[in-house]
TrEMBL record:
<feature type="region of interest" description="Disordered">
    <location>
        <begin position="1"/>
        <end position="20"/>
    </location>
</feature>
<feature type="domain" description="Rhodanese">
    <location>
        <begin position="22"/>
        <end position="110"/>
    </location>
</feature>
<protein>
    <submittedName>
        <fullName>Rhodanese-related sulfurtransferase</fullName>
    </submittedName>
</protein>
<dbReference type="InterPro" id="IPR036873">
    <property type="entry name" value="Rhodanese-like_dom_sf"/>
</dbReference>
<dbReference type="InterPro" id="IPR050229">
    <property type="entry name" value="GlpE_sulfurtransferase"/>
</dbReference>
<dbReference type="GO" id="GO:0016740">
    <property type="term" value="F:transferase activity"/>
</dbReference>
<dbReference type="Pfam" id="PF00581">
    <property type="entry name" value="Rhodanese"/>
</dbReference>
<keyword id="KW-0808">Transferase</keyword>
<dbReference type="InterPro" id="IPR001763">
    <property type="entry name" value="Rhodanese-like_dom"/>
</dbReference>
Amino acid sequence: MLGGMTGQIPRDVSPQEGQKMVQEGALLVDVREPHEYAEVHAEGAQLIPLSEFETRFAELPKDRPLVMICRSGARSARAGGHLLAQGYSDVVNLQGGTLGWIDAGLPTGEGNA
């Protein structure tokens, strides 16, 4: 899954910068699996699990910034690289992932998408 990395890697942003982008209209995209998302997620995150990402990424808008998030930042970087390879231009990766978001004291939610 997402094996065809082209070497494109999205820029990392801090949790605070990611939250500011979301407040300004960016879409926060969580690529963890549903059970992880249900435990805790960054407030407002849209779930598209990495296991479904190659078939569902086209659901994401190309006309607004995308902030990718996972647990710690590795899976979301892969997903963001895939989006860049598919012609998305405004994609960043949330450094530290959901763990960093929580550590920064930013708002979270629980439950299913």
